[in-house]
Write a structure and sequence with these properties.
The chain is an alpha/beta fold and about 250 residues long. It is built from eleven helices and nine strands. It has helices at about 20-35, 60-65, 65-85, 100-110, 135-145, 145-155, 160-165, 175-190, 195-210, 210-225, 230-240; strands at about 5-10, 40-45, 50-55, 90-95, 95-100, 110-115, 120, 160, 170-175. α1 links the parallel β1 and β2. α5 packs antiparallel against α6 (about 145-155) and α5 crosses α10. The longest helix has 21 residues, at about 65-85. It is globular. It starts with a strand and ends in a 9-residue tail after the last helix.
Length: about 250
């Protein structure tokens, strides 16, 4: 921690793929930041150049059971949002490269996203037999219904300039300056009254996230249902085998 700003750094090569252990470590770090009265702001970043988070560890997801899917997706969709809500201090995602799938789910729980000028984003879940269900809840509110549909259902990657134009990213910086930019911004927030920041942030999040708990639980159930479908099994197998999936007819 420096100047009241705590830094949480992902370091799970090669792409910071999300596992149960990954999420548990993130939860523990957020809990420590919440409980530490000296922490006034939090930055979440990556130690791997060009990679923020590639999303779920799909090979292990493929080997799991529906109950495993429900557990890990529940952590990403519901528990992480609860922890961020209760953090009581602002959080900043410093995106230094590729953010995909569940990596986007982590980033979007932060209050602000700052990205490197070569960062890329995307929701490729449909291409591997899954659904980006949690983003059905909040992405239309950020970018509008039609643009959200495009991003979520084509799965296309998009760059930081488009992300800024859509309102997903607040500002950009060269990768070499990204963390310094995030630290400068975090220092500005950390200089405010912690009591007023907590009170105001809580009110802001309650207003912005009205009904989110119900919608996130529905999204967890949807992904768990998808996990039992043949096209999901085919998509995950195709990803693991580095081939194009052969989808069913229905």
């Amino acid at each position: 921690m420096r100047g009241g700003v705590a830094e949480i750094t992902f370091d799970n090569p090669p792409v910071n793929a999300i596992t149960d252990a990954f999420m548990d470590a993130l939860f523990a770090a957020l809990d420590r930041a919440r409980e530490d009265s000296e922490v006034r702001a939090v930055i979440i970043g990556s130690a791997i150049s060009g990679r923020f988070c590639g999303g779920l560890d799909l090979p292990s997801f493929l080997r799991g059971a529906p109950a495993d899917a429900h557990r890990i997706v529940g952590k990403i969709y519901a528990r992480l949002s609860d922890l961020q809500f209760r953090l009581g201090k602002p959080s900043i995602a410093a995106i230094n490269g590729a953010a995909r799938g569940a990596g986007m789910s982590i980033a979007i729980t932060c209050d602000v996203i700052i990205a490197a000028d070569h960062a890329t984003f995307g929701y490729p879940e449909l291409d591997v037999g899954l659904l980006p269900a949690i983003h059905f809840c909040h992405l239309p509110q950020i970018v509008g219904r039609h643009r959200a549909f495009d991003l979520l259902f084509t799965g296309r990657a998009f760059d930081v300039q488009e992300a800024m134009s859509l309102g997903l990213v607040m500002r950009q910086a060269p990768e070499a300056e990204l963390m310094n930019e995030a630290r400068r911004y975090a220092a500005t927030l950390a200089s405010k009254s912690p009591a007023l920041m907590r009170l105001g942030r809580d009110a802001f999040l309650r207003t912005a996230a009205a009904g989110y708990r119900e919608r996130s639980e529905a999204a967890v159930d949807l992904v768990s249902t998808v996990f039992g479908m043949d096209d999901c099994k085919e998509g995950l197998a195709a990803f693991a085998e580095k081939r194009k999936p052969v989808w069913g007819q229905k």
